[in-house]
Amino acid sequence: MSRNEDNQPIENVLLHANPNPERVDCPTREELIALALRVREASDPLWNHVSGCSPCFADVLDLQRKHDVQPEEEAPRRSWIWLAAAAALFIIAGVAWYFSSSRSQNTPVIVARTVPSTVLDLRPFAVSRSEEVAKPVASLSLERKVQNVVLVLPIASAEGEYSLRLLDADLSPQLSTSAAAAVVKGDTSITKELDLTELPAGRYTLAIKREPEDWRLFPVEVR
Ligand SMILES: [Zn+2]
Question: Which domains, and CATH codes, for the chain?
Answer without folding.
Answer: 5-104 (no CATH), 117-222 (2.60.40)
